[in-house]
Amino acid sequence: MVDTSRMNSEAYQVLKKKFGRVMVENSNEYRVCCPKCESRAHKKDVKFKLYINPYKVSKNGKRGTWNCFRCSYKGWGLDTLGVQTTSESALPSREEAPAGSRTLNIFHETKKLKTTSEEKSGEGREEQEVKLPTKFSTEWSSSLTGRACYEYLVKQRGLSVSTITDYNIGFCSKGRYAGHIVFPITDQNNKLIYFVTRSIYEKTYFNCPGPNSHVFFNYKNQEHIVLTEGIFDALAVGTDGVALLGKILKKQQFKILKNSPPKYLTVFLDADAFKDANTIAEKLESYVQHIRIAAPPRDKDPGNLSKAELNDILEDAWYLK
Ligand SMILES: [Zn+2]
Q1: Distance between CA 319 and CA 303 in Å, rounded?
Q2: Rounded to the nearest whole angstrom, what is the distance from the C-alpha of residue 19 to the centroid of ligand 1?
Q3: Would you state the pLDDT for residue 118?
Q4: Are residues 220 and 314 in the same domain?
Q5: Residue 205 to residues 179, 182, 253, 308: CA-CA distances in angstroms?
Q6: pTM above 0.70, yes or no
Q7: Confidence at 113, pLDDT banded by 50, 70, 90
Q8: pLDDT number for residue 87
Q9: Within this chain, do residues 203 and 216 fall inside the same structural domain, yes or no?
Q10: Number of domains observed in the structure of the chain
């Protein structure tokens, strides 16, 4: 699917010069290892988590934008990223970007810029209707892909049939999300606000288009929340499991918990995210009455633990002070 001739493009060459290894993601985007993950997320990125679209132009004329899926490092202007363009015309402008180009829609900076003042004044985000992928299906037995997706959830991820149904988890056998499990994300009123997909063949996730700093998986204003990184972790915890979709508590997520704090909150990130867990707990400690931190053993993520192991660890959670 990837057009290898694009490896000869100017954009590829200048990115390669700066980052060494560059992956061609699709006709508009490249991926490199994020230079900021180590300082921002306490883990060196070796999985090309920084997505770069060198063609997109900001309102004030900055060319190129980027977004790190792990540490949320994002911004505008290739020069800010330290990429040296050889000349003014080294990269095509947006208008000249490859015809018929398809984007992942991960760059929503223009929308964000528009809503910044609203966010500051405490107003909500721009209302935007979220729709599931057109090929979304829960008819698992209707296709080979469906059956493979179901098997992946039950056998590899240990999900129960009722969990799959309760959370309206589905899949796509065709289109952009072919071979992906789709997790619809709803708010407290069961309104669809987002979705995340995960390939059953490789560790690839896609996010739904649109802003996501307000999105938690399975946030229902619970009295007790166990805050996890990923969806599978939250599902393993059960009804109290709420996923951050990352290691960091984003601005709007923080606001939600601050304005409507649960009585009990346990921060339960992966073992490698101990510092992040502490940061989150410290941020929330003046709002949440009982805040604790739990950590899985070094070699396991919360999503890979048995129910008994999970209960043990959550019982052993400790208070900040
Ligand atoms: Zn990063």
Answers
A1: 22
A2: 13
A3: 36
A4: yes
A5: 11, 10, 20, 29
A6: no
A7: very low
A8: 53
A9: no
A10: 3
Tell me how far the alpha carbon of residue 300 lies from the centroid of ligand 1, in angstroms.
22
Q: How far, in Å, is the centroid of ligand 1 from the Cα of 34? A: 4
Domain membership flag for residue 143: yes
Query: In this structure, are 220 and 316 located in the same domain?
Result: yes
Q: What is the pLDDT of residues 287-300, one digit of tens each?
A: 999 999 998 887 77
199 domain-assigned: yes
* 134 and 219 both lie in a single domain: no
Per-residue b or e along 35-72, where b marks 16 or more CB atoms closer than 10 Å to that residue's CB: bbbeebbebebeebbbbbbbbbbbeeebbbbbbbbbbb
Question: What is the Å distance from ligand 1's center to 54 Cα?
Answer: 17
Domain carrying residue 173: 130-209
Q: What mean pLDDT, rounded, does the chain reach?
A: 83
Is there a contact between 213 and 118 (Cβ–Cβ < 8 Å)?
no
- If 0-12 CB within 10 Å is exposed, 13-18 middle and 19+ buried, where does residue 131 land? exposed
Rounded to the nearest angstrom, the distance between the alpha carbon of 276 and the centre of ligand 1 is: 14
In a domain, 122, yes or no: no
**Model pLDDT, residue 5:** 64
Of 96, 115, 68, 125, the C-alpha closest to 253 is 125
State the distance from the centre of ligand 1 to the C-alpha of 257, rounded, in angstroms: 24
My answer on whether 215 and 199 are in the same domain is: no
Give the separation between CA 116 and CA 187, rounded to whole angstroms.
22
Provide the CATH number for the domain around residue 193: 3.90.980.10
pLDDT exceeds cutoff 80 at 70: no
Q: What pLDDT score does 125 carry?
A: 47
Q: How far is the CA of 147 from the centre of ligand 1 (A)?
A: 34
Domain boundary among 209, 233, 264: 209
**Residues 73, 137: one domain?**
no
151-208 tens-digit pLDDT: 999 999 999 999 999 999 999 999 989 999 999 999 988 999 999 999 999 888 899 9
What's the pLDDT at 277?
92
Do 228 and 203 share a structural domain? no
Residues 158 and 219 placed together within one structural domain of the fold: no
